[in-house]
Amino acid sequence: MDDLRDKYIALIADAADEASIEDLRVQAVGKKGEIALKMRELGKMTPEERQVMGPKLNALKDEINSALSAKKASLADAALEERLRSEWLDVTLPGRGRRQGSIHPISQVTEEVSAIFADMGFAVAEGPQIETDWYNFDALNIPGHHPARAEMDTFYTHRAEGDNRPPHVLRTHTSPVQIRSMEKIGAPIRIICPGRVYRADYDQTHTPMFHQVEGLAIDKDISMANLKWVLEEFFTAFFGTSVKTRFRASHFPFTEPSAEVDIQCSWENGSVKVGEGDDWLEVLGSGMVHPKVLAAGGIDPNEWQGFAFGIGIDRLAMLKYGIPDLRAFFDADLRWLRHYGFASLDQPTLHGGLTR
Ligand code: DAH
To answer: How many angstroms separate the CA atoms of 333 and 339, rounded?
Structure first.
């Protein structure tokens, strides 16, 4: 028994890993291990011998078992020590920098415009970009044969052969939202609608997709004077100073009378500057809502009247931030976006000051 004990204590001390500990356990104290075999020999002994040998064997078994678990624990400790030593992490290293995205000038200007009109009591409305030609044209007093339809270079949706429904269009302006809002809200009404619009057109100041914000105010006694005040108030807030504007008599099927508004600018040295030079950039169309348009929206033109306007958001962004080429807005060139983009935590509010 002493030999057995010395043998296993030595083997356990030498064991290098958990697997050899397990092997030794099976060999020594397992069901068919050496101790178990010795236990079997108890049967052949005299009762006196058995009284001496039984407890001794049990004590030996206990001793080996505790040597095994002590060794197991110390191997686990050593493994942990080794991991702590090798898996070393320097928490003082500087973090890896992440590029911050930026807010596109169009988004920025849309927010600015919304903040200014919200301050004047206008709510924000929305409409679909794929529109029926009734909302986009007919309801706005632009009938089928009207030259304005051709002027607008409309994108029409494709219809399958034999499908004779009138086509849908990519809306050519935000004006259809006037009709949708009249239907939804009724009179009185005061809304703006910013959004994407589409026309087949492409040069330095035109892209096939661009942005407008529509405005609509309907009440009992709204006049052209209210329109002019609202627009001038808007420009002053938007540019942070009063800028020279030019109201030109014009024509739109959906307004009577109508006016277009230009802003004074120059195009020198590869940038556009507002409020100087002798160029003008047209930024909006406006007028008193045509009685037929009110009627199409379900509002009685004998009782209500109002003004409407449609502003080119992209044009405003070009003017305010000195961006000379509209096409670059939609090139997704990261260098351009980093240069002209805005910090995301820098969102415009009237009380915070619009420009930074
Ligand atoms: N819808 C016109 C356009 O896209 C702009 C416009 C002109 C909107 C006069 C209006 C308006 O609401 O009254 O060119």
So the answer is: 10
Cross-strand partners of 131: 169
pLDDT digits (tens, 9 = 90+) for 97-128: 888 889 999 999 999 999 999 999 999 999 99
Task: Give CA–CA dist 317/320, Å, rounded.
Answer: 5
Asked whether the whole model's pTM tops 0.90, one would answer no
Whole-number percent of the chain with pLDDT over 90: 60
Residue 304 CA to ligand 1 center (angstroms) comes to: 20
> Under DSSP, is residue 216 helix (H, G, I), strand (E, B) or coil?
strand
Nearest alpha-carbon partner for 156 in 136, 139, 174, 186: 136
Q: Which residues pair with 192 in a beta bridge?
A: 124, 215
Q: Which residue's CA is the nearest one to ligand 1's atom 12? A: 309
Q: Which residues pair with 339 in a beta bridge?
A: none
Cβ(307)–Cβ(227) below 8 Å: yes
Determine the Cα–Cα distance for residues 35 and 62; give it in Å rounded to an integer. Answer: 11
Closest CA to 309 of 187, 205, 227: 227
The answer to whether 228 and 288 are in contact (CB under 8 A) is no
Q: For ligand 1, atom 13, name the residue with the nearest CA.
A: 286
